[in-house]
Structures are given as structure tokens and as C-alpha cells.
Amino acid sequence: MRYKKMTLSMLPLAAISYLCLCFSCSAVKTGYRLTKGTVKTTYRITKGTAKVAIGTGKVVYKVGKFTFHVVMAPLSWPLTRPIDSINDLPPKEAIRKGQVKRSPYVVNGRKYVPFSMEIAEKYHEKGIASWYGNETFKKKGGHMTANGEAFNPNGLNAAHKYLPLPSYVRVTNLENGKHIIVRVNDRGPFVDGRIIDLSAGAARKLDYFKRGTARVLVETVKVES
Fold first, then answer.
1. How far is CA 177 from each of CA 30, 49, 122, 170, 217, rounded to the nearest angstrom?
2. CATH label, 26-42+82-224, candidates 2.40.40.10, 2.60.120.10, 2.170.120.30, 3.40.50.150
3. What pTM does this model have?
């Protein structure tokens, strides 16, 4: 597939709308500890890096030095994790109607309610990170994240129970000092004691893929298009 390189001003209206969707935020409420010491740097999409695959729903762009590939998944694809309902609707219907970003959802009978924007923007927490996605390598076809994107096990993606979808966070491995920016586009981890699930690719960059977990600092970052 060939990609035509464009600046944002050259993108067709549909592509601009899709790119705006990629950077929109929503909300959640929880008991996570929040502080005012969040990342103060505002990251911008690097000028001239936006690429649109003509005739597809794929957008490629950079935030700082990190490259993101965003693709909307076919509704026929299974979710990465079972979700009972989103906004009191079947998950696929909620995704189709665009009722995911600000909506409460239910997993295994438990209801989760997204942060308010004020809380999400100040999110700052230390805890245990795990990674997920290895099981998708063994299955045919693709998988869909909780906001309707194609899940990429090798990408810089993450799952969080309460942050808006999508959001961007900087994750620092407190054991080795390595850090990356990831795009939160899925829900989880639904395991006690873990605050975030990274993709396998992101876990490799933070050097905890083989161990399975690491103690990390997660901080919301602001991204402007």
C-alpha cells in the first residue's frame, strides 16, 4: 500500500475529521491518587508527518519521537477483552454509534465510570504495569480495542480502566529509567494490583517484556494537533 505524504492543511475533510477523532478525549471517576506533578510539556504532532492511506481508515503521525498508526477495525472483529456493555448498549453498537469516550462500561458485572476531564488531565500514578496481546498472534484475523481501533500488539498502545479513550500517557519504568509515550485506546487490566496494560511492543521498549510486569510511573501528557 502506497501512502501519500501530506501536511494537515492538505488533508481531505474526511481525513481531518478522522484525525480529530484520534485526538479527542473523554472521561472517568475512580479512587486513583492524583497529584499536580503531571507532565507539563505539550506535545504536538510533528509538522508534515501525517500520512493518510487513500481509501482506507489509516492515519500515521508522530508525537515527539514516537510514531503512531491508527486504524479503525471492522465491526466483525472480536474485542481484545470481553466487555458486557458500554453506555448500556452492546459494545459493538456503542462503538458504531460513537458512544465510547464518555461512557461507563461493565466488565464481569462490575461497572466502571470514566474520569472527568479535570481529573484525567492531572492523572499521575505509580504502580505495576503488565502487558497484553501475545494471545492475538496465535489467532487468525484482527482484534478490536474498546474504542473501535485495530489492536496492534507491536504498537505503542495501552489499556487503562479509567482514562479517556483515546488518551496519551508517558510511562516510565522506575527500575531502569526508560520512558515512552503510549496511546490509551483500550480497557484493562482487570487484575487487582495493576494500573496499566501495555502492548507487547511497548513493554519491549521499556525492557520488561520477558519479566511480564514492572513498577512504573504513568502521567497524562497533552497532545495538540
1. 27, 28, 21, 12, 10
2. 2.40.40.10
3. 0.80
